[in-house]
């Protein structure tokens, strides 16, 4: 003789089901809505520039900065593109023209995208003609982004005051001359390979009272300015924020000579 008839079992399970449903309805709360990240825009850069110095905006700034890095930096970081983070920070924190001395597979596409995104003028120059035309033909045509082949470095870049100058050009002895040349024609200089003695950066370093070195990945990158003390502080701040993110990076293989 079973303890409960089939009908009794049915009534019990119906009762328990209804009880569970009532309990569920009673205690159910909407899950937290998914965090909607604001779409970044040119105004995001402006927002960061205006609020970077306000500590109550620090969380918001970090979130936006992370989105900007995700959008513009190609990962993993590698020795040839090891300057991407401080270069991007320098561009986010300024609003004027950009000069790229020496094209690269990382910097030129990133700067191209940034210049279209922010509607800022970019001049990319290189002494290697085939390399320059390879770069320019792989990017969309825009009046904002000009490419120029250079035979005499002293003749270019003289018609502008630049916000950011990227120093990544060849031959290596030329770089310190360009650093001096743009010392007072730019807000900041972003200088690649700054741990390498061959460029003799130490000879011109004394001209620049404000400096930051990014060391997350070799080759190191320096950011120097003759005038902009707080700009360098803020570039340092944004760049160092990325260190705990542990962005993927590729170490130099055997320090092969660059092409
Ligand atoms: C630049 O933008 C193009 C087109 O949106 C994209 O395919 C490319 O990955 C971007 N490159 C970088 C370095 O942001
Ligand atoms: C660009 O920044 C400078 C300060 O560095 C500011 O005076 C100027 O108004 C800004 N221009 C634009 C278009 O935002
Ligand atoms: C640029 O050079 C690379 C090889 O280094 C080649 O694969 C690519 O097709 C070239 N692009 C253009 C547009 O010439
Ligand atoms: C704001 O900038 C000044 C000058 O760079 C600096 O001394 C101060 O610590 C900054 N404050 C914050 C909250 O970042």
CATH topology: Rossmann fold
The succession of helices and strands, N to C, reads HHHHEHEHEEHEEEH
* Helical fraction: 25-40%
Mean pLDDT: 91
The CATH fourth-level homologous superfamily: Vaccinia Virus protein VP39
Q: State the helix count.
A: 8
Name of the CATH class: Alpha Beta
- Overall structural class, as computed from helix and strand content, comes to alpha/beta
Query: What integer value in Å does the Rg equal?
Result: 27 Å
Strand composition percent: 5-15%
Spatial order of the strands forming the largest sheet: 3-2-1-4-5-7-6
Largest sheet: 7 strands, mixed
The best one-word shape is: elongated
The small-molecule ligands in this entry are: 2-acetamido-2-deoxy-beta-D-glucopyranose
Second rung of CATH, namely the architecture: 3-Layer(aba) Sandwich
- Counting DSSP E segments of at least 2 residues, the number of strands comes to 7
Keywords: Membrane, Transmembrane, Transmembrane helix
Keyphrases for this structure?
259 residues; alpha/beta; Rossmann fold; seven-stranded mixed β-sheet; 7 strands; 37% helix; binds 2-acetamido-2-deoxy-beta-D-glucopyranose
